[in-house]
Each structure stands twice: as C-alpha cells, then as structure tokens.
Amino acid sequence: MVCGYLPASAGGSRVRPAILIAIILILLTLGAAGAHLQTTTTDLSRFNPGWSGTAAFYSLAGSMDAEILTPGTNEPDPADRYIIIAPKDASPSGIAEQVLQNGGSVIIADEEGDANQLLEALGSRMQIVPGNVSSLDMEFASTRTIIATVSGNHTLLDGISTLTFNRPSSITGGTPLVTTSVLSWTDTTGSGRPGAGASLGRYTLIAREEVDPGEIILIADASLFATTMQEVRQLHDNRQFLENMLDTNGTVSVDAVYGKTADAEGPAYIIHKVKSAPISTIIAILLLMVFVIVAFRKQIL
To answer: Could you report the per-residue pLDDT of 20-55, keeping only the tens digit for each?
Structure first.
C-alpha cells in the first residue's frame, strides 16, 4: 500500500531554504532598525548625522587619526591638543589641565556660557558672554549668520581669511584671533536689526590665552562643528579651520563624554549607554535576562 505523504527528509529539504531566507530577512531588518535607532536629532550630538549634528566632524576626526574619548575608554596619555565642544561644566578640567601642563593646547567651543566654569577651573581670564551677536556682514541674507575675519596670528588659522558663524556669542579677555566687523551688535530683541540702544562695534569670536606652559583657544560658537556649518555652500574657510584643528604634528584628542556631543534621546540614548558600558555590566545584564527567561519557562516567576 502506497502512503500519500512526503518523506520527512524531502519535506525538510524544501522547508529549510524558506526558513533560512526568513532568518536572513529578519536579521537584515533588525540590522537596519538597529542602525536607525542609534541615530538621534539632538543638536550637536555626534550621533546626529543631520545638519544640526556633529557626526560629520567626528567622522572627519577619525579619518585624521584623532583619538575620540568616549565613555568607558581608558584614560589616555595627555594629547598635544584636546578639543571639547559645548562642555556642560568643569568636569573635563582634569584632562585639560594635563594637556596644558605638558605644553599642549585646549580648544573649547561654547556660546551658552556653560564653558565659563571650565575656564575658571583652568585659571583662564577669558569668558563667554552669552548673547546673539549679529552683523551686517552676513551670509544667506541673515544678520544672525555672520562673517568674521582673521585678526590674529596662529597656526590654526593658516590658509584662512574668513569664517561663518551661526548666532555666536562673544568673548572677553585673551588675545583676539577672529573678530566681526564694526557693523556688529548684540541682538537683545530678536528682531535681527540694531535697535535704538544697540552698540555697534567689533566682537571677538575666537580668542587665545597662554596658560603656562600651554594655551587655551576659545570659540564662541559650538555650532561651528555642526554639519551645516561645514557643508552648506562650502561656507568660507570653515571646513579648513576644522581640518587645521585636527592636523598637527602631535596627537589630538576629541571629547565625546563631557560635552553636548555625547547627548542622545530615546532609543539612541539606551543603545549607546549599553554600548559604552563595561563588558562586565553587559554580561551581568545578559545573565539576568537568561535567568528571567528560564524562571518563566519553569513557572518559578
């Protein structure tokens, strides 16, 4: 008597390719979703590949062999140059002090004034003066996107004549390196025009100060590192300026811990927190997950 069923081996040979294809599709989907969830739209975040993020700058830094200081990395030897974007407080003062004590340079960018705590901790007399510096020397027909010119000598400014800034603040103290024209003012009304009480004059946007035996370079606009300020219409010498920062005979370290570039929101925050956690912590979490799964299967929980 002939049975009307397909042998298991034949059936299995037909099913396995379908299962394999399904698994591949699932893995590809999870990979794409994972890549998407790792990005964010947070301003200045290195995980933000959009116009307002700094992903492009960190990619440039990596391609030029700069060391990216991320959470969980071993404390490196003091670099010859240390770059920190939008520091939130004085937390990075320990790293910065070591760089300065070894005769290196610390580059700080900020427009909100939070960097003043770090500057004070390092013994600097420079300060960020928060305020929207505007100018009639502008880009995109906007007095808030202004053009400033080199006014001092420094190797960071080699090959540079003008830079474009987006709503910068200003700097007091130090030696001016880049300044606005005299047709500039602090826009306190948000109108984009000099009001009746506005004082026209030059404002310092980048300055330098010696802190023996090293130096501090202060930039009054953290968004100078944002993708939009590097790529849109090749704005003046902005990209060259960033390349000059990363191009040195010594070593360069770029902070990714203490500034706003480390920020992320939603799933991206969780993913990057896990990725930056010590391996022992990750193993402990995985073991806990296995325990919970086994406990549920055995109806212990």
So the answer is: 565 665 555 544 444 444 457 888 999 898 889 999
Asked if 80 and 255 touch (Cβ cutoff 8 Å), the reply is no
Q: What distance in Å separates the CA atoms of residue 68 and residue 232, rounded to the nearest whole number?
A: 25
DSSP state of 188: S
Tokens of 202: 């030059």
Bridge partners of 148, per DSSP, are 163
Which one, of 258, 237, 239, lies nearest residue 114 by Cα? 258
Burial status of residue 28 (CB atoms within 10 A of its CB: 0-12, 13-18, 19 or more): exposed
User: What are the structural domain ranges in the chain?
Assistant: 12-40+264-286, 55-262
The CA-based angle 115-153-63, given to 5 degrees, is 65
Instruction: Give per-residue pLDDT as tens, 148-167.
Output: 999 999 999 999 999 999 99
pTM of the predicted structure, to 2 decimals: 0.78
C-alpha span between 175 and 172 (Å, rounded): 9
Strands (E), the chain: 67-69, 81-85, 105-109, 127-129, 133-135, 138-139, 142-150, 162-166, 170-172, 175-179, 184-186, 204-211, 214-219, 252-255
CATH architecture under which domain 55-262 falls: 3-Layer(aba) Sandwich (3.40)
